[in-house]
Amino acid sequence: MEQNLVLLLLLTPFVGFLFNVFFGKKVGKAMSGAIGTLSIVVSFVVSIYFFMQLNQTGKPIQISLFDWISVSNFKLDFGILLDQLSLLWLLFVTGIGSLIHLYSISYMNDDENMHKFFAYLNLFVFFMITLVVGSNLLIMFIGWEGVGLCSYLLIGFWHKNQDYNDAAKKAFIMNRIGDLGFLIGIFILGSVFSTLDFVQMENGLNVGTANTGMLGLAALCLFIGACGKSAQLPLYTWLPDAMAGPTPVSALIHAATMVTAGIFMITRMNFLFDLDIDSVHLVNLIITIVGATTAIVAATIGLAQNDIKKVLAYSTVSQLGLMFVALGLGAYNVAVFHVITHAFFKACLFLGSGSVIHALHGEQDMRKMGGLKKAMPITFWTMLISTLAIAGIFPFAGFWSKDEILITAFHGNITIWIVCSICSINTAFYMFRLMYLTFFKTFRGTEEQKHHLHESPSLITIPLIVLAILATIGGAINLPGSMWLNHYLEPIFATVSHEEHVLGNTEYMLMGIALAGAILGIGLAFSKYIKQNVVPNEDNEIKGLTKIVYNKYYVDEFYTFLIVRPINGLSNFFRTTLEPALSKTVFRLANVTYVMANQGKKAHNGSVGLYLFAFVIGVCSIIIYLFLV
Amino acid sequence: MSPILIIFYFLAAITLATAFLTIYSRNPIHSAIYLVICFFSIAGHYLLFNAQFLAIVHVIVYSGAIMVLFLFTIMLMNLNKEDEVHKPRITRLGAIVVFCLMSLVLIAIFMNSKPIVGEYDITGEDFQSIKVLGKVLLNEYMVPFEFASILLLVAMIGTVLLSKKENTSK
Amino acid sequence: MNNILNEIGIENYLFLSVLLFCIGIFGVLYRRNAIIVFMSIEIMLNAVNLLFVAFSTYHQDSQGQVFVFFSMAVAAAEVAVGLAILVSVFRNLGSIDIANLKNLKG
């Protein structure tokens, strides 16, 4: 019975994918959208059922579907592990997934390939579920690769535009670089533990293994994989370019689910990252530093961006950096908390921006927006709630989770805490910059657009409202008093040393400082964009420091120079020099046969007399050979 | 010299001479006539062996049917003119060399494997009269016998088909 | 009744047969006229037949003569078909010089 339910959970999105691929065009837009959404809703319902069951029994569900690999002493089966961590992820992936599917029914209604869109979305959710419920690293890797593929397909969804295709390729290739690290980590772990199953690896560590250097190396390689998928330095440049995809894609994949896969993986492998070995401590330090650097760099880039989706993209990178800071410091449950709250408000922000873009018929430049507050009230209020959440204002969800991170950072290393606090202030600033430029003051677009301004249809606003509510109350899952999430996740982190942060004076002071910083950021934004009525310059008028920040510190150009140009040069060399040389060599070899055949042709001169002569000579030789020799 | 040996030499001489003349003569009609005489002499050899059936069949089939066919064809193609060009000298030389070579080789073989018998035994029973031949042919060799008849049928059909005049324009 | 070979000896027949066979080969290679080539082939066949009959008497067995019987049947069929082909060639090429049959060249 349980196995059937698990299969239902896993396979319904895949069935939705197949349906939309084969019949989507025929059944029409409404039906294909409905089937797509329904398949995710079914998975959501099943995850709720399992969640309830887990709460009752407290025992994780381990189901082995079939024996997969069995080579000498390395055994692997294709199994499903439904414990607290994976159920938590399942809940918000399928939940937010179904909301976004609902949203897409209306958002993508004008597109003629809507069924293809839903097919890809369903496939993506299927792979994400695989990633989350797998019981060993290899199944997780299947899901990992699969979500990368779907990300490529969805970013390049409007494939007639070559720029979008380039963005999709960039995302896939950068993911691939990370995946190489992940694979090497898998290989090292497989050779050390002779298994890749999470439970067995954890037991193996408890028993005690030698080879500590390899474990540190494995941890580092796994982190590189997480960098690629969750857009940390230096593999982050694909995420802002991935905004070329439709907005629901950005919301689902690049805000709530795929980019959190790296964090999920590290949390899953917490027993590895928490070992008391020097090499692993070094890896943790690297994780923290990379996370903090990413957070601050992305936050500063976000200050000068003018495309509404790019601001949100850099904000995502920055928040992911904060999550990695928490992971590096060993506070896994804090990172998970922030993942959940971030999913709520970031998805809401992206969907809201999608609503704005839809109303303006594709305009994404904030310099051409303004004054939308009156025309689109629901969008405005939901985005305001989510912005308050991301800025970390009490009592919205972001306040609690970001605060936990800052407290952890403070207890870990003061410098990290300072960097994270600066990052939070920046976040508050640019998020409110976004709000002011988009919704306040007067409309800066064309008359035609102004005429058509109206609130989006209900299929778009309902998900916005649901997500805004979640962004408001989401903090409740881990309030300092009850700490429900920490207690819930305890069995996962059985080997992790916890420190319960008792709320003492330091903690309250830190909370106060964080709140003050956020209000400072909001105030600065208010004064610049409302009081002084500043509108960012047009592209050719941007100068100085702003120009460097606006051009993302020229990182993309640096990568092009360092990597893309040499590879292009190499391929050119192969095309013009090596390949003709090889084909000429092969051709000449074939020519030898031709020349030999030409010479042999002379034996066929057509005269029957010659042939008869040859007969006789042949018979003579045979007879001589047989009888006289 | 027993009379039989003399008869043998006589017949052998005729055989070899006419065979050589068949090849050597310029006129194809002459060649055909020489060949007929050669076949008759071989029939004589068969009679020496007391293989009467075979001798008669040989005369009927070879001299009576095959050579007549040859003569018809020669006359059909008007070949009684003696206008043949010789082959290149090297080829003719090659042919002579081959002839000598082949004969020498074969004779050498047979001399090497010369049976060491003084007396040839005789079983006394009849092994080659037409009665015995008939029995052997239709008992042990019945399948080849039937196949031979099919072969002749096929050859007949093939020949008729091959020599049909084409109706398309030439 | 004596075995005839007592008088003549098998070697004589061997030599006769071999010489006849080689004359046949000589004819095949020496002449250009296709008819003469055919006739040479018949000479070769006859040489073989003669040898078969000789050995049939040597072994006092009738199987040699049965083989000659079949050999003659085959020779007859072969002559018929071969002459039909020759007639076709004559119709197409106008002469039966085998040096003209060069279509297999190349």
Q: Report how far apart the termini of chain B are.
A: 65 Å
In total, how many domains does the architecture of chain B comprise? 2
Question: Structural class of chain A, please?
Answer: mainly alpha
Give a count of the beta strands of chain A, DSSP E runs of length 2 or more.
Answer: 2
How much helix, percentage-wise, in residues of chain B? Answer: over 70%
Beta-strand share of residues of chain A: under 5%
Task: Output the CATH class name of the largest domain in chain B.
Answer: Mainly Alpha
Largest interface: B-C, 82 and 74 residues
Q: Give the C-alpha Rg of chain B.
A: 21 Å
Query: How do the SSEs of chain B run, as a string of H and E?
Result: HHHHHH
Gyration radius of chain A, rounded: 30 Å
Q: Tell me the number of strands of chain B.
A: 0
- The span between the termini of chain A is 85 Å
The secondary-structure class of chain B comes to mainly alpha
Strand content of chain B is: under 5%
- Count of alpha/pi helices of chain A: 25
- The helical percent of chain A reads over 70%
| Annotated CATH architecture of the largest domain in chain B | Up-down Bundle
Oligomer kind: heterotrimer
Describe what this molecule looks like in 3D.
The complex is a heterotrimer of chains A (629), B (170) and C (106). Chain A is mainly α and 629 residues long. Helices cover 74% and strands 3% of the residues of chain A. Chain A has a two-stranded antiparallel ribbon with strand order 1-2. In chain A, α1 (2-27) packs antiparallel against α2 and α15 runs antiparallel to α16. Chain B has 2 domains: 1-110, NADH-ubiquinone/plastoquinone oxidoreductase chain 6, subunit NuoJ (Four Helix Bundle (Hemerythrin (Met), subunit A), Up-down Bundle); 126-165. Helix content of chain B is 72%, strand content 0%. Chain B has 6 helices and no strands. Chain B has helices at residues 3-24, 28-48, 52-76, 89-112, 130-139, 142-162. In chain B, α2 (28-48) runs antiparallel to α3. The longest helix of chain B has 25 residues, at 52-76. Chain C is mainly alpha-helical. Chain C has helices at residues 4-8, 10-30, 34-59, 63-93. In chain C, α2 runs antiparallel to α3 and α3 (34-59) runs antiparallel to α4 (63-93). The longest helix of chain C has 31 residues, at 63-93. The model of chain C has no long low-confidence stretch (mean pLDDT 87). Chains in contact: A-B, A-C, B-C. The interface between B and C is large, with 82 and 74 residues.
